[in-house]
Amino acid sequence: MEGLTDEGANVKGIQEEICSEPTYDTSGRKCRKYTKEMDMYLDEILADEVEKGKLLGRNKQQLTQVQIYDLIVAKGFDISLSTITNKIREKRNKPKECFIRQEYDYGDRLEYDFVEVKLVIDGELGTYHMAVLSSPAGDFRWAFLYKNQKKEVFMDSHVRFFEMMGGTYKEVVYDNIKNVVTRFIGRNEKELNSDLIKLSLYYGFDINVTNCFKGNEKGHVESSVKIIRNKVYAMHYKFKTFEEAVNYLQQELIVLNEKSKIKEERDYLLPYKPKLELANIKSVKVNKYSFVRIDNNYYSVPEYLVGKEVTAKVYYDDIIIYSNLHHVCEHKKIDGANEISTDTRHYLDTLAKKPGAIKNSYALKSLPKLKSIYDTYFSKKPKEFIDLIRKNQNKNIDEIVEILSPDLSSNIIAFSTTKNHINLGDITRSQTNKYNELCIKGRIPL
């Protein structure tokens, strides 16, 4: 028989119906307990959630379905949790989003993110910031650790990365952080940060900003953040100094990227450009304490500049002061506010006239080792202390501290400053050798 007759087809259909599991049409079934009043109250709750979302953006304060159910029960309604969750799902009716798998060529795309990490530095828990840069094509991820998330740090992370890579990607992808988007214009228009635009023009990359709350649009760097946090700082998060934490990160990243294809990708990057100097140039006036105020902190300059205007080049970690285009001094940039960075050598002329002022000076107290040496050996002869610093003012503070180090004994220090004869028999052989060594290096006058 070539095919089933109409009668045979009917028989087959009847047999399948008899053997199949029973089904029930529930499409028209109504909830016996779910009332119109309950429905209106649920609509009010969901409307409030929409307004909250507009005000706060996507956040973790959104009510859960259980919390909504608790509100309804607290209102006096008698209903099951499953009924309410089904109604919420029905009202929100959010279809699942479809994602399009992406493939990128070498050198095409770099993804950027800026995140927080918790570290214990010198026994104190603090929040630090990590710039994470990630290449989907090369499966390469890198990061730089910072003490803040200011614009200078954001810019510095790009320059450091391009310098390390020896080239630039064609496109860099960001989310909507303040260092990228200055302000929103309407629903879809964004005004980009002018400094980022300058950076992109210099290095030649395009800026791509994701849609709001769409982390999946830069998924590689999102996963890189999780990997770096877990592989680098999850087990080892205590360090003696910030510098130690920075060096540890760099070493661990080398291991983390051993299987990446970054060597192959480097050949496809845009040509290398000389490192971009990112200093903010500021004109500042020197106050009566010979301080300049920069970003709410104070930095000392040589005393002859009191009352004058000087130029400060402010980098993310250093401040360099110029007067009439001549280099004057440098300071490590301070994190915080109303703090002071000072150098005793900036006040030598004033201290020579007022030697008693050095004892309680902030310049001396800010250097505990130097202050300890002064209190131990020079508290009654401040002029000699100032003279010795003057003779060695071209050396750095660590070298000056070494010259005044107490392991030379007070006799040697007194001899080096006053050139009075002493009985060398009162000095140990190791002290004599140290004294001769410093004489040869020119750190102590013969």
Automatic annotation (TrEMBL):
GO terms for molecular function: nucleic acid binding. GO terms for biological process: DNA integration. Residues 91-279 form the Integrase catalytic domain. InterPro entries: Integrase_cat-core (IPR001584), IstA-like_C (IPR054353), RNaseH_sf (IPR036397). Pfam families: Mu-transpos_C_2. It comes from the Bacteria. Belongs to the transposase IS21/IS408/IS1162 family. This is Integrase catalytic domain-containing protein.
